[in-house]
Write a structure and sequence with these properties.
The chain folds into two domains: 5-224, Hsp33 domain (3-Layer(bab) Sandwich); 230-282, HSP33 redox switch-like (CBS domain Like). Helix content is 35%, strand content 33%. It has twelve helices and 13 strands. The radius of gyration is 22 Å and the shape is elongated. The protein starts with a strand and ends with a helix.
């Protein structure tokens, strides 16, 4: 049973398309050891769902990164998704983030979407202000600006699961069925998180839209990917240079590198630092 997935679909007779994302195991792995309060968990879950919804629709992007930067108790939310639908994410917040509405937790700020071109590696970024009371509303406004399309978005998250349902109204929708968009969005608004966890996507979609003709595309699996990579950190330290690294060691007694995105910590004592430059030892 596929429990971490993104599913693309189309209402054949309505010119409305959609994407459904559900995360359980991958989401729980992202939260391991974080200790985020429930309000922050929900916001990061919503951001992660958005990252997957975007990543699943970008054919030429090696990676899609979504950043929400705010002046409120939750100052930063980051989620990124590779072309292979491998995800990771993090949040930064202060003690005031225990509770509150999404708007009050984020405050004023901006939403940034960065696409990494799969061929050239070049980065393309879109920035929009945070407008709306929820992340869903903020992202709907982003889509209306960036893609000039009307969208309806539902985001649900707790410590055990994440769900996102995105509907997009195509240009010919009203001509095909003047009530179609209103009907579909009204049905979508009844979605609950509990209903998505143990349901397969096709069964879920046909349950919520029983009278609509659906075309369901290939189901893609999603996984959490943020490996512990000490060799990469060693390369970074060598890049800083021996004198600078040894100065840090002398001041602090060890060199500590914290990877907030992956929730990893790397510690290097004097012996480990010496091993970074074996040629220096050989001269003594």
């Amino acid at each position: 049973m596929q429990t971490d997935y993104v599913q693309r679909f189309l209402f054949e007779e309505l010119d409305i398309r959609g994407r459904l994302v559900c995360l359980t195991g991958a989401w729980r792995r992202m939260l391991e050891g974080r200790g985020y309060p429930p309000a922050v968990v929900a916001l990061l879950g919503h951001t992660t769902a958005l990252g997957v919804l975007l990543g699943a629709n970008q054919k030429d992007a090696a990676r899609v990164t979504l950043q929400v930067q705010g002046a409120g108790p939750v100052s930063l939310l980051v989620a990124d998704c590779t072309s292979g639908l491998k995800i990771r994410g993090m949040a930064q917040y202060d003690a005031r983030a225990a509770a509150g509405s999404e708007r009050s937790l984020l405050g004023d700020g901006r939403l940034a979407v960065t696409l990494e071109d799969a061929t050239s590696g070049q980065l393309y970024q879109s920035l929009v202000p945070l407008e709306g009371e929820t992340l869903a509303e903020m992202f709907e406004r982003y889509l209306s600006r960036s893609e000039q399309s009307q969208a309806s978005l539902h985001l649900l998250a707790d410590g055990g699961a994440v769900c996102g349902l995105l509907l997009e109204k195509l240009p010919g929708a009203d001509a095909r069925d003047p009530d179609g968009w209103n009907r579909i969005t009204r049905l979508a608004a009844t979605l609950s998180l509990a209903e998505t966890v143990d349901a397969q996507p096709y069964d879920l979609l046909t349950r919520f839209f029983p009278e609509e003709l659906l075309r369901v595309f290939r189901l893609y699996g999603v996984e959490y990917h943020c490996p512990y990579d000490v060799e990469n950190v060693k390369r970074m330290l060598r890049g800083l240079g021996r004198s600078e690294v040894e100065a840090i060691l002398a001041e602090q007694g060890e060199v500590v590198i914290r990877n907030e995105m992956c929730n990893h910590e790397y510690r290097f004592d004097a012996r480990a630092i010496a091993e970074l430059w074996p040629e220096a030892r050989a001269l003594h």
